[in-house]
Amino acid sequence: MNTPRSMESIVVTPATPGAADARIAADYVRQRVGADFQAPVCGIVLGSGLGGLADRVEGATRIPFSHVPGFPAATVAGHAGQLIIGTLAGRPVALMAGRFHMYEGHDAALAAFPVRVMHALGASVYFASNAAGGVRRTFEPGQLMVIADHMNLMFRNPLIGPLEPGDERFPDMSEPYDRALQTLLHDAGRAVSVTLQVGVYCGLLGPTYETPAEVRMLERLGADAVGMSTVPEVIVARAIGMRVAAVSCITNKAAGLSLQSLNHEEVMQAGKDVAEDFESLVTEFVRRLP
Ligand code: HPA
């Protein structure tokens, strides 16, 4: 019997990749790097405008997202779309220049899939960064905020579905952002003279920015910053037992808190303005990791 035509074009990238897919992706990455591969001490994801850190990676193997099994191609301007394996401050790292967002139409599990891959490569620490709007009224564009906690207003959870082998079914989220790693970030900040704010990150689906009324609501709920990423990644990282640290780059005052309207180009530019501080901070953080 002939294979039906429709069978020939089945796309093999699963919509909700899990632990087994992560092992396949990690095997591919190890093969690409070859004999020099070292298990990363930290998996890092770079947010909008923060991709410059990728240039500080030494001995880098740069793999386009589209080559990694299970990864879709990145679609957002300002996200380079490479998984980079190399060293930062002499320590092996796996670094994502770009990420997958739910507003691109990806399932929460796919948005978080790179975290599974970095874990499968050997990373036990996950460091997330993002561009965010400042909800706390004293926050100014160009400030960096250590994320102390988050609110999931994406109303999706990457763990919904059959339990993945190795996952916790009901992960504890009473300390999603590791206390010791927050201290390490503050120590690193002092060492490189970068001032850090601390606050609660609120994840929304996007892709629209918020209305002023929504920002007032978020303020009342206790959010300090608002963005469109990170939360699914952190949930998966906790479910598989990784320790998490994260930093938001405040790229703008959230809607209604200034007279300006918001656009992606300004968000990108603000990220670039703070890039040097951000890069020194993360490099020093990685240097100090146990
Ligand atoms: N809202 C949501 N996401 C963002 C913002 C914002 O104001 N700035 C950068 N990312």
Structure report:
- With 290 residues, the chain is an alpha/beta fold.
- The chain contains nine helices and nine strands.
- It has helices at residues 5-8, 19-33, 108-111, 113-120, 179-191, 212-221, 231-239, 264-273, 275-288; strands at 42-46, 58-64, 82-88, 91-97, 125-134, 144-152, 196-203, 225-227, 243-253.
- Helix 2 packs across helix 4 (113-120) and helix 5 (179-191) packs across helix 9.
- It starts with a helix and ends with a helix.
- Bound molecules: hypoxanthine.
- Hypoxanthine binds next to strand 5, strand 8 and strand 9.
- Hypoxanthine (HPA) binds at residues 131-133, 209-210, 226-228, 251-252, 254, 262, 267.
The CATH homologous superfamily is called Nucleoside phosphorylase domain
Tell me the series of helices and strands, N- to C-terminal.
Answer: HHEEEEHHEEHEHEHEHH
The CATH architecture assignment turns out to be 3-Layer(aba) Sandwich
CATH topology: Rossmann fold
Instruction: Report the β-strand fraction as a percent range.
Output: 15-25%
| Radius of gyration (Å) | 19 Å
Strand order of the largest sheet: 5-8-7-6-9
Which class do the helix and strand fractions yield?
Answer: alpha/beta
Tally of helical segments: 9
Give a short account of the largest sheet: 5 strands, mixed, barrel
- Proportion in helices: 25-40%
List keywords for this structure.
single chain; binds hypoxanthine; 9 strands
